[in-house]
Amino acid sequence: MADKRDKADDLSRLQNARLLIDFFHRLMMHHAMWFAEVKQQLGKEKAFKILTEVYQKSYEIQVARLAKTLGFDLKEGVPAPLLELADETIEKLRESIALNWLAGDGIWFQGVEFSEDMATAKKCNDLCWAEFSPFEAWSVRRLLDMPDMPGLDGLKEALKLRFYAFVNRQSITDETTDSFVFNMNECRVQAARKRKGLDDYPCKSAGIIEYTGFAESIDPRISTECIGCPPDRHPEDWYCSWRFSI
Length: 246
What we know:
Elements: H1 13-42, H2 44-70, E1 74-75, E2 78-79, H3 80-83, H4 87-115, H5 118-144, H6 151-159, E3 169-176, E4 179-186, H7 188-195, H8 204-218, E5 223-228, E6 240-245
Antiparallel strand pairs: 1-2, 3-4, 4-6, 5-6
């Protein structure tokens, strides 16, 4: 136990509040760095297997400690105050968090672009999607308790729970029993560029990595085909379109 004199007890209320926020950021970064290093040392498949166990154990310890400290109840492992929110508030909260993710993605892109150049930013963006898409698929699979190889029906359900599903407008059209088409009908990033009179952002290279990685991580039998994605020309009713098939 550290001596009380070793602690920063002279912080103001504002400094303590900022420290608490910074603690959460450090916690998330440390968790991510552990996963990145385990993946580097043991490979992606083993890393995700370990992550499944680590996430559950870590979550249970952390949420129980926060519940005890802040005085809220848990119901089936979930903070009771979250379960008591109105449906409208839940919807707004989901969208707000998803928009924060999108904003963070753009801030990172611009940070690299302004520090270096557009080509470097696009390279970092593409490589980031190569890491994030399989992770987001893992997250959704765990959330839905999906079986191995859930097929196209599993992919349809998973696409509804991506961050993008809560910030953009998307649609799915069945083609055959072995394929369907996914359209991103409205895209906040591209729509913002359009309002400014700018050309579409050429996101095809990232999109191929993103959608292929996500689909294969849901079910390795699924193939992904890009029907169209900027800089490709596209109709008014979608910005990018993808065919998934088995």
